User: Which sequence fits this backbone?
């Protein structure tokens, strides 16, 4: 199974939707660029559209564009040593996704994440060697990152942040998850310690500020998910 904890004292570098700030997101070129810039894992979103598993965060309202397929992404990644972080947006597609991961020989270096418990439990039943990540809190539309909306919901995030250390054990257990995939606004040193006491990794999304990366690094998080892998620079601590 893929190791989701810090490696030789260094936090994991994870490209969000490939390298979404630098190339079209959820495309093979974005995945390739993230690896070129030193990412250990690449994250991408998977939806089911017209019977195909495709890389896209939100399904289009109109005619379906020519979207990259999961098979295309996995065929590329199979030829690399990169870790795969598959963020599920298509509950019900678990059997087809597992079959694709097996077909491309990447099950043992893949983590599947979701906000929802039923898909994670389904993956655990279908393929026990697959690493699972519970994403929290649910924020499908990235509201917390939006300047106009973020300040309105951050009080709620503060309440979640306070309660999370006491809740995280039950949440991870119910999901069968080996990693907590947490929004950066709910991460504290206390929840990082709690997860580590439980043997769970902490991966944090989505951080594009080098100073914030440095702060999370000092907290001991295991990995940071970013749109721009250049953000890591010299900001990760030495072993």
Assistant:
């Amino acid at each position: 199974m893929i190791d989701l904890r810090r490696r030789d004292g260094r936090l994991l570098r994870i490209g969000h939707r490939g390298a979404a700030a630098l190339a079209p997101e959820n495309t093979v070129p974005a995945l390739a660029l993230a690896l070129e810039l030193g990412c250990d894992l690449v994250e991408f979103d998977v939806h089911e559209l017209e019977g195909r598993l495709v890389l896209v965060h939100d399904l289009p309202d109109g005619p379906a564009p020519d979207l990259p397929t999961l098979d295309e992404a996995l065929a590329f990644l199979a030829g690399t040593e990169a870790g795969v972080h598959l963020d599920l947006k298509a509950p019900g597609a678990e059997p087809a996704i597992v079959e694709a991961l097996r077909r491309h020989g990447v099950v043992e270096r893949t983590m599947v994440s979701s906000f929802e418990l039923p898909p994670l439990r389904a993956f655990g039943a279908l393929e026990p060697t697959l690493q699972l990540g519970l994403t929290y809190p649910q924020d499908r539309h990235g509201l917390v990152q939006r300047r106009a909306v973020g300040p309105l919901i951050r009080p709620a995030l503060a309440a979640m942040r306070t309660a999370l250390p006491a809740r995280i054990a039950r949440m991870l257990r119910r999901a069968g998850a080996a990693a907590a995939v947490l929004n950066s606004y709910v991460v504290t040193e206390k929840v990082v310690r709690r997860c580590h006491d439980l043997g769970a990794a902490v991966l944090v999304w989505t951080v594009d500020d080098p100073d914030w990366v440095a702060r999370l690094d000092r907290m001991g998080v295991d990995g940071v998910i970013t749109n721009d892998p250049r953000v890591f620079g010299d900001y990760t601590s030495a072993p």
User: Anything to note?
Assistant: Helices lie at 28-36, 70-78, 94-103, 117-126, 150-175, 189-197, 210-219.
